[in-house]
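Re: the request from the purification team.
They wanted to know what the chain is likely to look like in 3D before they choose a buffer screen. I agreed to run a prediction and write the result into the notebook, where they can find it.
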Amino acid sequence: MHPYGAAKAAAETAVRVVDPGAVLVRTSLILGEGSKQIQLCRDALTGRATLFTDELRCPVDVGDLADAVLELADSAVAGPLNVAGPEPVSRAGLGLLVARRYGIDPAGMTTTTTTAAGLRRPTDVRLDSSRATALLRTRLRGVTELLAG
């Protein structure tokens, strides 16, 4: 439906042509100290950016994701595999977790909905990572745990 999704689908198709036995890791918002996602939330908490209240995603820690990818590189797993955190959250919800983690007053957070922003795109983009959880030794932590003080 969108150029971003089309580019991702084309990349997966190209990988399958080159190596039909490859694992295709699909992920969600990648979090870590200094990450783009954390900075976006910090900016929204001071009114310099806007976070959506109606888009649900499953953030994953960059370290957890890296460990999972390394584990998968030495496995026989093939095809698409969702590797994301187990806990869905909106970007605005993520902003509130970031506020709590860093001791920032959330009163200044700017939010909107995709509709109010004039966007027409899916809002429920959660990934079901239950297959990855069953296959991997790596534990994919939830966003609340990741951002706990």
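For the purification team: DSSP finds six helices and eight strands in the chain.
Please add any questions underneath this entry.
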